[in-house]
Amino acid sequence: MHFVGLAPLASAVANAGGLGMITALTLKTPELLAREIARCKELTDRPFGVNLTFLPAFKEPPYPEYIAAIVEGGIKAVETAGRSPEKYLPALKAAGIKVIHKCTSVRHSLKAQKIGCDAVSVDGFECGGHPGEDDVPNFILLPRAAEELSIPFVASGGMADGRSLVAALALGADGINMGTRFIATKEAPVHDNVKQALVNATELDTRLIMRGLRNTERVLNNAGVERVLEIERQKGDKLAISDIFEQVAGIYPSVMIDGRVDAGAWSCGMVAGLIHDVPSVKELVERIMAQAEKLIRTRLEGMLA
Ligand SMILES: Cc1cc2nc3c(=O)[nH]c(=O)nc-3n(C[C@H](O)[C@H](O)[C@H](O)COP(=O)(O)O)c2cc1C
Description:
This protein is 42% helix and 12% strand. The chain has 13 helices and nine strands. The chain has helices at residues 7-15, 30-43, 63-72, 89-94, 106-115, 138-148, 162-170, 180-183, 192-200, 223-235, 245-248, 252-257, 281-304, and strands spanning 21-23, 49-53, 77-81, 98-103, 119-123, 153-156, 176-177, 206-209, 217-220. Helix 5 (106-115) links the parallel strand 4 and strand 5 (119-123). The relative contact order is 0.12. Flavin mononucleotide (FMN) is lined by residues 1-2, 4, 23, 51, 53, 81, 102, 123, 126-129, 156-159, 178-181, 266-269, 271.
């Protein structure tokens, strides 16, 4: 998660028994990524991973150099996203790195499996960030992925608690990936206003922007987002990214660091409606596991009885 997936959160997730992720592109250069990996290793002796997002960009980031930093940092799991990681798989595989590709459709998941990814993260329509253009929510997408895939997959989008975990397992996933929920934790290195905005938000408070550009993003609604939607309505199919540049480009530091939560568009999932507090990562993960166990032992066992 851009400007969230840094060493404090990645290490806290790793220490709680999850696979924490550092967001490579938040670090402006491969050298800074190498330093962030080293910082994370000082905070945990558990494994953690790195997310490498392939964005539509005017100037492509130096991906081979980022991969070199990942390899030299001894990272063993990389989450790729945005577009097919095919071009970079040989370099990652040669270093013994497991590649989890994030996909928003069965079609892309099958492609990821075919090109040799080790696992996929299946991101349903409710997810924060980029849900793709098919609009299939996880109650359909996950069992469809289970029908088709032979590699493991985690359920992503809308995951918040033990109920999400048990449901995801029932739908065929092998685990869950949480984005928005982890932002509202004590260790997330973002301004308190961001955490509070998530606690205050309901499941009705996200909006989809950039549909017309086929680069749909689910974001938390605010005045900047209303403005984007207004411009989108006015421009119709003539919309260009330059029309909404002010509300979408370079917003993350203002929001995440300065706490200006109305500065513009920032990713947020519908799961905000299920976020009511700001626990530590350890408390959150333990609560999820305890709730999942209770659900399995009482509600599900009870059904059999
Ligand atoms: C603030 C924020 C920033 C994100 N940045 C990225 C990113 O840079 N790369 C990426 O692959 N996914 C990014 N995502 C998506 C998450 O990795 C994850 O797929 C998504 O949040 C899952 O849905 P959920 O928010 O309902 O848990 C971001 C999500 C949020 C909320």
